């Protein structure tokens, strides 16, 4: 037999820390008292209604229950309200066992099973703890007699005489099931909590809970795999028996582990005391340094004070002598009483010089010393910042690294980071950043506390570089700072637009997505049919599409992505004055270079081609970026071909009449030229063959945490 007192730990509710009372089985397979579940649910509901205010009751370790909530529970219980009214609006339950929010479903606590087996074990434990405390008969007249048996059908205890009276021979009650004296009465048949009139007769292998036939037919378990209750009973009992036998066979190994854990407990105590002593020594060293600096500062202030007081006191005494019958004036008045000229002149000459000096000092009065001690103000701003960052650096806490591929700078800054090995050992992260300014020697870091692994930052300056770094915290332990990453913002405010599906849009050759943020060139039958009359020296014009919003003034930036498989794409801007000319060009043009009767040579054709451009575009294709041919461009054709960036950007400055093309990953300018901005300017794109362009989506104000499987 198992010693019942040795399993007390398994019989304690994780919420109230007392023996289970009517325990319920949560979907996470933890047990909580029925009353505790109601208290936590009502407190969870009240925390939303009251704006998360704290309450005073300490019955739950995670959520404090207010006295008003307790009164509300008792009032509802006494009023005899239907069970459904006990289900709060919120179906989320913060499990005190696994510390996770569990969804209880639509029925809330009414959809949970009572763990009658656990109740029976708890009752046996109570009886073992009470030992000599007898269970009295529920029907005896005072004084009641000690009960000898309990009826499971009547849920009552009886002495021998009362049992015979209430269960007469030959009646239905005589067939009731009775056991030894107990206070734990459980129903003989387990009923379904969702269909209260149906008994459970199947076991859902997906949800791992008993269900009735209505649950399987049309309920939440309709598509789940179920088995009979007898099969589930046999299977689970065999598994549990084997697992228990295995654990019992490893009894010596378990004892060895316990001995090892006891040693670890003692070692932890010793190491913690040693760590406390080392930490105290470190702070004592800092205290000694601070005390020494404090003494030096106070001595310097005291010395300066004494010197200033001495100067001011001397000056005050000198001016005191200028008063009548005092000091210098009094002495001069006595000298004036001398009648002998020779003696008077002998003394008065030296005295007159002193009087003149005193007169001059009186006209230009200035204190002999300053009264303020501004030179002795201690600047501790940097030291405060350093001490604020003072914490434990643990080797076990991984150093997060900023992921530059996932991070991007657009209308806002999205900074994303990850830990090596996809571990998530930190509870919270500190993200710091500052604007990179070469003129400033030391910049002030701005800090943001983040619970996820990404953060959106707004209100950054355009055309500026920022430095970012991050580190993780777990309690009072923090990791070292990550490697600093420099990211640059776009050169101008971000311009938002969609592809225009009306103006000149060729639906036969181009395909727009429903959101009008992506366009794809379909090189199918229309292109082949259009090429049927081509023989030699012919080419087809591009299919054009523009943005649905124009720009009249100012400086603007937008970005996009060109698929790597794209054969030919042109991007740039077009003026409203030339849109009609752009879309009314013929779609099949014979090149005059090779037309037998054209009469043009190659030089005249190039001149005609350059002068007839109705817009400013650059050519992309086959994973390359082609710098247009201009007088300032390199002569070598190979030097005009650059690798195609994964993100391209265009910056249009209408005020200066310039358009620039950027690598939007690092905001590096690839090419810049003049453009005529006399009309309203529109973003323009042209595609031929298999190609696709995707507009850059704006960074939302709140960006969700990246999942590990992304």
UniProtKB/TrEMBL annotation:
Residues 399-492 form the Fibronectin type-III domain. It comes from the Eukaryota. Keywords: Coiled coil, Cytoplasm, Cytoskeleton, Ligase, Metal-binding, Microtubule, Repeat, Transferase, Ubl conjugation pathway, Zinc, Zinc-finger. One of its GO terms (biological process) is acrosome reaction. Pfam families: ANCHR-like_BBOX, COS, zf-B_box, zf-RING_UBOX. It is found in: Cytoplasm, Cytoskeleton. This is TRI36 ligase. SUPFAM superfamilies: B-box zinc-binding domain, Concanavalin A-like lectins/glucanases, Fibronectin type III, RING/U-box. Residues 477-708 form the B30.2/SPRY domain. GO terms for cellular component: acrosomal vesicle; microtubule. It comes from Rhynochetos jubatus (kagu).
């Amino acid at each position: 037999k198992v010693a019942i007192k040795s399993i007390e730990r398994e019989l304690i509710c994780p919420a109230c820390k007392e023996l289970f009372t009517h325990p319920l089985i949560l979907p996470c397979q933890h047990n909580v008292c029925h009353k505790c579940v109601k208290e936590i649910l009502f407190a969870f509901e009240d925390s939303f209604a009251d704006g998360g205010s704290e309450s005073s009751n300490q019955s739950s370790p995670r959520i404090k229950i207010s006295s008003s909530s307790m009164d509300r529970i008792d009032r509802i219980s006494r009023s005899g309200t239907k069970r459904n009214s006990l289900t709060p609006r919120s179906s989320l339950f913060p499990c005190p066992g696994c510390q996770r929010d569990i969804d209880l479903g639509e029925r809330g606590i009414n959809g949970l099973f009572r763990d009658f087996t656990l109740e029976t074990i708890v009752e046996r434990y109570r009886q073992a703890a009470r030992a000599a405390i007898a269970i009295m008969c529920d029907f005896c007249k005072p004084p009641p007699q000690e009960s000898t048996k309990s009826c499971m059908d009547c849920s009552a205890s009886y002495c021998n005489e009362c049992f015979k009276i209430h269960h007469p021979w030959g009646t239905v009650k005589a067939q009731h099931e009775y056991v030894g004296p107990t206070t734990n009465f459980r129903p003989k048949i387990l009923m379904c909590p969702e269909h209260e009139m149906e008994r459970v007769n199947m076991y859902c292998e997906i949800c791992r809970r008993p269900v009735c036939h209505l649950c399987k037919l049309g309920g939440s378990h309709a598509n789940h795999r179920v088995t009979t209750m007898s099969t589930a009973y046999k299977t689970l009992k065999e598994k549990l028996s084997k697992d228990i036998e295995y654990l019992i066979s490893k009894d010596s190994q378990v004892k060895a582990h316990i001995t090892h854990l006891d040693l670890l407990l003692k070692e932890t105590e010793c190491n913690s005391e040693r760590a406390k002593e080392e930490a105290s020594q470190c702070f004592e060293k800092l205290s000694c340094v601070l005390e020494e600096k404090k003494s030096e500062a106070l001595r310097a202030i005291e010395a300066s004070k004494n010197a200033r007081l001495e100067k001011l006191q001397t000056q005050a005494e000198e001016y005191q002598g200028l008063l009548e019958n005092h000091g210098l004036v009094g002495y001069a008045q006595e000298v004036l009483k001398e009648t002998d000229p020779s003696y008077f002149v002998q003394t008065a000459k030296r005295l007159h010089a002193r009087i003149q000096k005193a007169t001059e000092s009186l006209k230009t009065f200035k204190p002999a010393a300053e009264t303020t001690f501004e030179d002795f103000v201690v600047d501790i701003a940097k030291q405060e910042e350093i001490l604020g960052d003072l914490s434990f650096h643990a080797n076990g806490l991984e150093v997060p690294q900023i992921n530059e591929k996932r991070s991007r700078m657009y209308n806002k800054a999205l900074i994303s980071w990850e830990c090596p090995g996809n571990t998530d050992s930190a509870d919270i992260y500190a993200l710091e950043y500052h604007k990179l300014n070469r003129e400033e020697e030391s910049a002030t870091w701005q800090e943001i506390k983040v619970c996820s692994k990404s953060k959106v930052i707004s209100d950054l300056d355009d055309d500026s570089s920022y430095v970012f770094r991050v580190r993780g915290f777990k309690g009072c332990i923090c990791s070292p700072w990550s490697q600093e990453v420099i990211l640059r913002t776009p050169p101008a405010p971000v311009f938002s637009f969609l592809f225009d599906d009306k103006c000149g849009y060729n639906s036969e050759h181009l395909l727009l997505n429903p959101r009008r943020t992506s366009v794809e060139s379909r090189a199918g039958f229309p292109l082949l049919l259009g090429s049927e009359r081509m023989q030699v020296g012919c080419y087809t014009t591009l299919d054009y599409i523009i943005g649905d919003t124009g720009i009249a003034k100012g400086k603007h930036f937008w970005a996009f992505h060109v698929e790597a498989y794209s054969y030919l794409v042109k991007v740039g801007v077009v003026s409203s004055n030339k849109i009609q000319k752009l879309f009314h060009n013929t779609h099949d043009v014979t090149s005059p270079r090779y037309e037998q009767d054209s009469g043009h040579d190659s030089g005249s054709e190039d001149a005609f081609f350059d002068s007839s451009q109705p817009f400013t575009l650059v050519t992309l294709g086959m994973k390359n970026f082609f710098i247009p041919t201009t007088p300032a461009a390199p002569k070598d054709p190979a030097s005009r071909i650059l690798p195609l960036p994964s993100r391209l950007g265009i910056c249009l400055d209408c005020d200066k009449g310039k358009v620039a093309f950027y690598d939007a990953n690092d905001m590096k300018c690839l090419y810049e030229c003049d453009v005529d901005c006399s009309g309203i300017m529109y973003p323009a794109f042209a595609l031929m063959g298999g190609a696709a362009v995707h507009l850059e989506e704006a960074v939302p104000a709140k960006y969700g945490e990246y999942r590990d499987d992304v």
